Amino acid sequence: MKPFLKKLTIALLTLEAQAVIKRYKPRIVAVTGSVGKTSAKDAIFEVLAQTSGARVRKSQKSFNSELGLPLTILGRPSAWNNPLGWMQNLIDGLFLITFHSVYPEWLVLEVGADRPGDIQSVAKWLPVEVAVVTRLPEVPVHVEFFDSPEQVVEEKAALIDALVPEGTLVLYADESRADDMRRRAAGKHIITFGFNEEADVRAHNFSVLYEEGLERMPIGIQAHITAGGSSVPVSVLGTAGVHTLLPALAAVAVGRALGKDLPECAQALGSYVPPPGRMHLLRGIKGSSIIDDTYNSSPAAVAAALDTLVLVAPQGRKIAVLGDMLELGRHSVEEHRKIGTYAAACADLLVTVGFRARDIAEGALDAGLDEKNILQYEDADKAGEELAAMVGQGDCILVKGSQSMRMERMVKELMANPERAEDLLVRQDLEWSNR
Fold it and tell me: Taking CA 336 as the corner, what is the angle to CA 335 and CA 338, rounded to the nearest 5 degrees?
């Protein structure tokens, strides 16, 4: 779509979305942050859908942009490069405004910020009942388009301004900037979630779940969630890593904000399926296992993923496959080298993919990882093809990189059932496959 037509289409869809909100008055939960937005949105949807008995709609996939947000509100798909498809979306939006239709009572919206002003603009017209702020690490993704990491945080915090007078802020308690967020939300109800004992909703007593049998294949993670003086066990299948429980904690916190008790929130999470490409556990070739974290990448997320590689304690080697981390701007070289240093302590074999990831390799080499255990590639396809020949029984392979690195192609080479790639991996639709 040409830039002018894209801007015009976004403007018209946004006007229609505003009109729909005014007409149908849905209750809105909005989720922002730099890490874990999509997973949190999905978990919150399950808690609302399972406990409220109401009609609930969530952002599809990662529809969180200036275009994705109005599409979600209107209930329309992306038309990609099809002008007729966009025209149909606009017509359907007008129909929704003009003629009364059955509309969701709840919207769970993911709100992203690629550039300054993105969330500030949304906050002017979106009446949010519960605003959820997930992790905001020291060097977040998308920092390339902001003057500083602090400006990214300020942009994310603008979602608090969208809260209705009786609204609630659900906040990650372990965040170093949590106190600043609380001050910004003065006068609002605040519920915190996290791992420290001061959080209103917290998780503790973590352990990895394994499939019974000789292969000791990781299949999920379990913990106890404590809130309001009571504690319940919770299991999340298909994912691993302590940080992968944060979406569940955020969902419970939203449930608590809306008057749900802890057991019913925990029971609702039984229907939560982590989205593809977010610490997703897959069976690999030759009796190996894969931690597929290929949706996107940032320094904090890579460090958490490497921690998980250590946590699962495979019978074979711990293999870290790390692609470029994009949109870091002037922080790029330093952050890639830091990750290399961290990877040297977590992995037996390091595979880097991309030009920027060479600095990961350099960092690992300087940190003492033997040169023969560091492999470097320019693209994911070649890396996947050659690593497939090296993988052995019991190896655990972490694969992570920014979207443009297309690391999911590597996972397809390594997974035991590539015929299921369309269901299990990210970016499998026709538009992505043609890129």
Answer: 65
Domains, the chain, in order of start with CATH, read 3-271 (3.40.1190.10), 280-433 (3.90.190.20)
Residue type, 191: I
> What residues are paired with 170 via a beta bridge?
132, 191
DSSP code of residue 116: T
Residue 434: other Cβ atoms inside 10 A: 6
Cα torsion for 205, 211, 216, 220, to the nearest 10°?
Answer: -40
pLDDT in tens, 375-395: 999 999 999 999 999 999 999
Distance CA 66, CA 401 (A): 24
What phi and psi, each to the nearest 5 degrees, are found at residue 277? 80, 5
- Give the span between the Cα atoms of 206 and 222, in whole angstroms: 6
Inter-CA distances, 285 with 159, 321, 324, 390, Å:
44, 16, 25, 10
Where b means 16+ CB within 10 Å and e means fewer, 155-182 reads: bbbbbbbbbeeebbbbbbbbbebbeebb
Asked if residue 238 lies in contact with residue 275, where contact means CB atoms within 8 angstroms, the answer is no
Percent of the chain residues topping a pLDDT of 70: 97
In this prediction, residue 31 carries a pLDDT of 97
- Between strands 318-323 and 218-227, the pairing is unpaired
Structure confidence by residue, pLDDT tens digits, 344-369: 999 999 999 999 999 999 999 999 99
* pTM for this predicted structure: 0.91
393-417: burial string, b at 16+ Cβ within 10 Å, e else:
ebbbbbbbbbbebbbbbbbbbbbee
Strand ranges of the sheet holding 230-237, from the earlier edge strand across to the other edge:
56-58, 106-110, 27-32, 128-133, 163-172, 189-194, 201-210, 218-227, 230-237
Q: Are 266 and 253 in contact (CB under 8 A)?
A: no
Task: Give the Cα separation of 143 and 132 in Å (integer).
Answer: 20
8 A C-beta contact, residue 58 and residue 45 = yes
How many residues comprise the chain? 435
Q: Which residue bears the tokens 């080697």?
A: 317
The Cα–Cα gap between 154 and 351 comes to 35
d(Cα 423, Cα 379) in Å, to the nearest integer? 23
Q: How many alpha carbons fall within 13 Å on the CB side of residue 236?
A: 33
